[in-house]
Amino acid sequence: MKKIKLLLVAAIACVGSVNVYAKTSDQASLDSAVQRLHAAMIAGNGAELKALTTPTLSYGHSNATVQNQQVYIETITSGQTHYKRIDLTQPSTTLAGDNAIVRDHFSTTVESGGKQTDVELDQLMVWKKYGNSWKLLARQGYKH
């Protein structure tokens, strides 16, 4: 009976550690996807932007402009909008199964229409996990 209890406790401990590992692994892969997205925005890498976003992307800017995936990618890859730098601070992430909510402060230097501007705003991103990959489903930037 003691051996059965000991085996049961060991099995529960193993299952618990696998669950903790899965959460840690999901968090790490999500963090990587967020970093890759912003690096692709700076580089103007359309293939990477497409790989990290869903076809149904809703990308909202702080000026109330909303772009779908195609317009979002074209705006960046054409040079119409060129991100010089992107710094993210104050991150807050909530994982909910295959979905994630990421909030942070978005600080950027962007060139658009020949004019360079420093922008400070907060953003809310909704990510969805497809297999082992996280993809951006929606993003809204806002000033307060």
Automatic annotation (TrEMBL):
Statement: the UniProt record of this protein carries the keyword Phosphoprotein: no
Alphabetical keyword list: Signal
Domain DUF4440: 32-136
Coiled-coil residue windows: none
Superkingdom of source: Bacteria
Keyword rRNA-binding: no
Record-linked InterPro entries: DUF4440 (IPR027843), NTF2-like_dom_sf (IPR032710)
Signal peptide from the UniProt entry: 1-22
One Pfam family, short name: DUF4440
Name by which UniProt lists this protein: DUF4440 domain-containing protein
Species of provenance: Caballeronia sordidicola
